[in-house]
Amino acid sequence: MPGLPLTLGVSIAVARRPRLHRARAVSPEGLALAGEEPLPENRLPEAKIYTEEPFALWVLTPMCRRTARGFDLEVQPFALTGGLREQWEKLVALGPAGAREGT
Length: 103
Known about the structure:
Elements: E1 4-14, E2 17-27, E3 30-35, E4 46-49, E5 55-67, E6 70-77, H1 82-94
Antiparallel strand pairs: 1-2, 1-4, 2-3, 3-6, 4-5, 5-6
């Protein structure tokens, strides 16, 4: 997924357990992530994005691929409305400047 490079933490709940990932790039279509645990493809989990003002949203998980370091994943925002749309657009517009290391 092409996009602006950034580094921030993202947790995605699967079976009520958060799995921690690192965002590597952001675009209007979604986030490219890296992590040590896989995510089920074609699901709709809840994600928390650790920006200066962390926010939670539903994401689609179209791709999860094993690599030598763990897993590369892609997630896409789902049903963004109101305040969530504004937070997502801020993240995309600011790219690396809007991100910080998260958990």
